[in-house]
Design a protein that fits this description.
It is built from three helices and four strands; from the N terminus they run αβββαβα. It has a four-stranded antiparallel β-sheet.
Length: about 110
């Protein structure tokens, strides 16, 4: 390991970020930290008593939310939704933390 060469970066090699660059980095960090996801939900009868979540991978409906597909972008969920029969189906915003919490509760039982 004594043959390893350590190169220290000279701060002058990296120009300071512009205000636009800083704003873009902040926007991307905020987006990455946003827990909102979108899921395609079917509420048969609109009563809330029988809800199914769509799983894109298998083209199936799941009774547990964690098995459904979570979309990071609303436009992607809506694109899939637009190809479906819309009877009893909506696109719903969910918080990823809440979905993970419900999965944890299921495993405790």
């Amino acid at each position: 390991m004594s043959d390893d060469i350590i190169i220290e970066d000279d701060p002058e090699d990296f120009p300071p970020l512009s205000d636009e660059d800083v704003a873009e980095l902040q926007r991307r960090m905020d987006d990455a930290e946003d827990p909102t996801r979108y899921m395609i939900k079917s509420d048969l009868g609109y009563s809330g008593s029988f809800i199914l979540w769509y799983n894109v991978t298998d083209d199936t409906w799941c009774s547990d939310q964690i098995s459904g597909t979570m979309f990071k972008r609303l436009k992607h969920a809506e694109a899939v939704f637009d190809q479906m029969d819309r009877s009893f189906v909506t696109v719903e915003a969910v918080l990823i933390d809440l979905v993970e919490a419900s999965e944890d509760d299921e495993h405790k039982e």
